[in-house]
């Protein structure tokens, strides 16, 4: 290495060291301010509400608007979310329940939203995820609600009908499926373990690449990775988190049939989220069993100028051949237009439950 090159590199590295020192000081200064926020809340009797999803969303939106690069918005969003997670943990690490075991896409969604400083609490079923928060054993739950290729997650919708929990956030996660195995080549793979949805999402790739391999559905992708790690001739369809946690090499990457395959998760808590400026409202309603009943329920949204982004029917649990409808709206229920539409809907719907108003997912 030439002397000129060493001098130029040394100068830039000195500047990097200087910036790193400034960053460290600023991060600790931010942490001290976060501690002051916790102390103020405690004095006013709100110590239990250390996490405010609307405030976090506002910070992330502002950071994205001010970002001039070269770091991408996705990168700076990840960084600031981790900073906020670390600062929150100084007050009290948040307990996050999700469908386990460790290594699932649900774990990835929980970490994406709450950062690595959160206390992860994997559960064996979606029902248990709900119960952990309802019983105050966990602070928040992260559960899948719909996939872009496979549709709604029925068990989540059924539980939302009866739970007292509120939707206070959402996470959108790109789903990249990898074939994980200790085998050296595709030709050595005789079995493929995975969750039923992942097998469906990779159906065409499996037909082309592993037509003779047995496909075995299991409870989760993480469980599939555990089985594949312990069995000769076995592979698993799972994500990067499972690959890292169970030390499984990737035989093939991004094998999902749809390149834009995405799962939407909702965050459930015991309190509402305030308006952030970019919000969504979710609700459940029923309709009278008569001609035009559903159109009458939808009319208040168009009359008030409120955009409806999702309408999903689901069999009601209490009556044969009766249905309820899950609806997503743009805006917070405190917004004037949404408030007007919901007031009129309450007069028309036999049953109406507001699941929550919450910030739209950040990238």
From TrEMBL:
The keyword Methyltransferase does not apply. Gene3D superfamilies: 3.30.70.260, Chorismate mutase (1.20.59.10), Periplasmic binding protein-like II (3.40.190.10). Keywords: Amino-acid biosynthesis, Aromatic amino acid biosynthesis, Cytoplasm, Isomerase, Lyase, Multifunctional enzyme, Phenylalanine biosynthesis. GO terms for molecular function: chorismate mutase activity; prephenate dehydratase activity. Pathway: Metabolic intermediate biosynthesis; prephenate biosynthesis; prephenate from chorismate: step 1/1; Amino-acid biosynthesis; L-phenylalanine biosynthesis; phenylpyruvate from prephenate: step 1/1. GO terms for cellular component: cytoplasm. One of its GO terms (biological process) is L-phenylalanine biosynthetic process. It catalyses: chorismate = prephenate; prephenate + H(+) = 3-phenylpyruvate + CO2 + H2O. Its EC number is 4.2.1.51, 5.4.99.5. InterPro entries: ACT-like_dom_sf (IPR045865), ACT_dom (IPR002912), Chor_mutase/pphenate_deHydtase (IPR008242), Chorismate_II_sf (IPR036263), CM_dom_sf (IPR036979), CM_II_prokaryot (IPR002701), G/b/e-P-prot_chorismate_mutase (IPR010957), Preph_deHydtase (IPR001086). The record marks 263 as: Essential for prephenate dehydratase activity. Residues 3-95 form the Chorismate mutase domain. It is found in: Cytoplasm. Residues 282-359 form the ACT domain. Residues 95-270 form the Prephenate dehydratase domain. The keyword Isomerase applies. Catalyzes the Claisen rearrangement of chorismate to prephenate and the decarboxylation/dehydration of prephenate to phenylpyruvate. This is Bifunctional chorismate mutase/prephenate dehydratase. The lineage of its organism: Bacteria, Pseudomonadati, Pseudomonadota, Betaproteobacteria, Candidatus Accumulibacter.
